[in-house]
Design brief:
Length: about 160
């Protein structure tokens, strides 16, 4: 079944490797289909054209479209986590071979941007006590990987 909306990630030639990597990182994930270019092209016959895959039930497509386009931070995928251990695991796995950014952002080894954060961060930032939420914001702005204990300490300050 074709989804009404599904992200399509444009790679040069690494689409299958990226799909294999992402499905190894997220639980309940799988590669659904791999399609190859035929003799009509536009790329070499037999080369992987597109990989359909699911990450924890969300459908994606990885397209090997060529070198014309690359990823940037204008598009990112959010990974909300319930615990610090979950943040640590996703941060470590997705960031392997990539690049850490500020405030829970990172680029993976394929250049795709991710935001890895604890769900508690959203609660703390939305706290009706404006001073508390601003202390949390200030703490978050000083971080790369989000550290829940430090956020909670900032929220508790008087």
């Amino acid at each position: 079944m074709i989804e009404k909306i599904a992200p399509c990630l444009w790679f040069d030639t690494e689409g299958e490797q990226a799909a294999e990597f992402y499905t190894s990182v997220f639980p309940n994930s799988k590669i659904v289909d791999v399609a190859h270019y035929g003799e009509a092209g536009p790329r070499e016959e037999g080369m992987v054209m597109a990989v359909s895959f699911e990450l924890d039930g969300v459908k994606f497509v990885a397209l090997n479209g060529g070198p014309e386009f690359t990823f940037d931070e204008a598009i990112s995928f959010q990974v909300s986590c319930e615990t610090q251990e979950e943040v640590d695991a996703f941060w470590s796995k997705l960031g392997e071979g990539g690049e850490e950014g500020p405030c829970g952002w990172l680029k993976d080894k394929f250049g795709v941007s991710w935001q890895v954060f604890p769900t508690r961060l959203i609660e703390l930032l939305g706290d009706p006590d404006r001073e508390k939420s601003q202390r949390v914001m200030q703490a978050m702005l000083s971080m790369r990987k989000i550290e829940l204990d430090a956020l909670e300490r900032a929220a508790a300050e008087a």
